[in-house]
Specification:
Helix content is 39%, strand content 11%. The chain has 540 residues and is α/β, with parallel strands linked by helices. It has 2 domains: 78-206 and 363-398 and 420-441, D-Maltodextrin-Binding Protein, domain 2 (3-Layer(aba) Sandwich), CATH 3.40.190; 210-360 and 468-529, D-Maltodextrin-Binding Protein, domain 2 (3-Layer(aba) Sandwich). The two termini are 43 Å apart. Keywords: Signal.
Length: 540
């Protein structure tokens, strides 16, 4: 099963241009993309019931909480449901006990006012389950639509099978559902297709991939932070000895980090004349590929390219560094070794002079569309989504994520919710399934290690100094939807061959030519045609 860390990794900045755009694709030639760019998004109104210890910012800085708010406030006025609701979602944890034998699920239903009947898929297999239900005569009320699992023909599918929610959510209409209004415009863009809003988005961290290293390992060479690519190379060589290795074998993810040091753009670069240049077309990225090949030849990558998860080996020191999504990924390591707080690499110029970049992520993991229904039923489902989007620190957030005090959770000495033994059995799979289907905006919170929150917050501030966003995020290309994943996979296959020495660097240009003729040039034209004038120039 793919891990949640791995799932989030493949929805990060490195692939946002080719996959997430597919979920908002209306087809440039049909006018859907233009309509999407002109749609009035839901009015944003931040939830004002709580004050974080460390405030967030429009730049993407996530708010931080050092402890759970002492008096959780209610964010809804009444239970949202009078009738049972069926939903398809996915879990990236062990599936939970079924509703009939899961007291936490039952208490959630009691709080909702009626049963929430979940069909919970896993990966691999979710697209097949989605397709089976889609083809049936009886759709569930809600079906989570992932951004990266290859579900085809998104636009026609939504038009044929699901409810257009634009009139209920566009502009000030969303204010009837305050928790949905507290979702940021960047999150809503994911749920826009053909100029219409089709569901509730699922926010995640706005930060993209980062390199993290075990500080105990890197202390041997003066620490993880570096000033030049040559310095990093030398440290990697010193840490690699045929048993221990400096870098995990996820070559494309590591290459993403190197590209930032060489100044490669976040998927697309906006030129002075408003034309677009793709990441693959830049000398910056090609130089990063050459650098990665040099590292591979020096035998600093862990040699098993099929390694599913490097985290345990990073914890035990066999691998010194790996790539995860966002600074909050430190929790993955704490879970395995409570004494370990990993370091996060801050991007640097490859030669000590050039300006590095840091690629921000897309900030969502898909959206959840509604089956077509009458207005009363649609408003009931929207009220459910509003409840399940309750912000961190609210009573509804506690019910969704921790259950009932004294049963699934108790308060520790600092009044933070901590799962009981029963909670650890009932909650993880259920909470994972609920979070995948619907979520509030993300925050930084680790009750066991409040100092981690401060460190992560400080790291985010450092990364934001170099932040670059994908300029095409929120704009759409029919070709990207249909061909983007295929031509990207083919190009990456060649890149991996170059890095691992199976092909020479000369193969890069031929692979790029195939990428361009196979759809890359057409994607560029379609994205450029709907690029908002507010998007700034990012290169020349």
């Amino acid at each position: 099963m793919i891990s949640r860390r791995r799932f989030l990794q493949v929805t990060g900045a490195a692939v946002a241009g080719s996959t997430l755009a597919a979920c908002g694709d209306g087809g440039a030639s049909s006018g859907g993309a233009k309509a999407s760019s002109e749609l009035k998004l839901p009015t944003y109104k931040a939830f004002e019931g709580l004050r974080p210890d460390l405030p967030g910012a429009e730049s993407g800085l996530e708010p931080g909480f050092l402890k759970f708010p002492a008096d959780a406030v209610a964010s809804v006025k009444a239970p949202p449901l009078k009738n049972a609701v069926t939903a398809l979602t996915e879990t990236f944890a062990t599936p939970p006990p079924p509703m009939g034998s899961n007291p936490m699920w039952q208490s959630l239903n009691q709080a909702l006012g009626a049963e929430l009947r979940l069909t919970i898929g896993t990966d691999p297999g979710y697209p097949e389950k989605f397709a089976t239900l889609l083809a049936s005569d009886s759709l569930p009320d809600l079906m989570w639509l992932p951004p990266n699992q290859g579900i085809p023909n998104i636009g026609p599918m939504l038009e044929a099978k699901f409810q257009d929610l634009t009139t209920y959510l566009s502009g000030d209409a969303v204010l009837e559902y305050p928790n949905l209004a507290a979702l940021k415009p960047a999150s809503w863009r994911t749920a826009v297709v053909n100029g219409k809003i089709w569901g509730a988005p699922i926010p995640s961290t706005p930060f993209g991939q980062v390199m993290m290293g075990n500080p105990k390992t890197w202390a041997k060479v003066g620490g993880l932070q570096c000033r030049t690519a040559d310095e990093f190379f030398a440290k990697c060589k010193e840490l690699s000895n045929g048993t221990n290795y400096a870098l995990e074998p996820a070559i494309i993810n590591m290459l993403h980090m190197f590209g930032e040091w060489f100044g490669a753009p976040n998927t697309w670069r906006v030129n002075q004349d408003r034309s677009l240049t793709h990441l693959y077309e830049t000398d910056n990225y090609k130089a990063a590929v050459e650098y990665a090949a040099k590292l591979w030849a020096a035998k600093v990558f862990y040699p098993d390219l099929n390694l599913a998860d490097a985290t345990p080996k990073t914890v035990n020191g066999q691998i010194a560094a790996q790539v995860v999504v966002g600074p909050r990924g430190t929790a993955d390591f704490r879970n395995l070794d409570p004494t370990l707080f990993v370091d996060t690499m801050i991007p640097f110029g490859h030669d000590g002079k050039a300006k590095p970049v840091y690629d921000m992520g897309y900030g969502t993991v898909g959206f959840t569309p509604f089956k077509k229904a009458d207005e009363g039923r649609i408003r009931e489902l929207l009220a459910l989504m509003d409840y399940l989007s309750a912000p961190f620190g609210t009573k509804e957030y506690l019910v969704k994520n921790f259950g009932v005090q004294g049963q699934q959770y108790q308060l520790d000495a600092n009044k933070n919710p901590v799962l009981t033994k029963a909670g650890t059995q009932q909650a993880p799979g259920l909470v994972s399934a609920l979070q995948i289907m619907n979520a509030p905006e993300s925050v930084i919170f680790n009750p066991a290690f409040p100092d981690d929150t401060k460190k992560i917050y400080a790291t985010e501030q450092e990364l934001l100094k170099y932040a670059m966003r994908n300029p095409t995020a929120g704009t759409y290309s029919d070709t990207s939807s249909k061909l983007g994943p295929k031509i990207t996979a083919a190009f990456r296959d060649t890149i991996i061959d170059i890095v691992t020495g199976r092909q020479k660097l000369d193969a890069y240009d031929a692979a790029l030519k195939r990428w361009k003729s196979g759809g890359g040039d057409k994607m560029r034209d379609e994205f450029a045609a709907v690029l908002p004038s507010s998007v700034p120039v990012t290169g020349s």
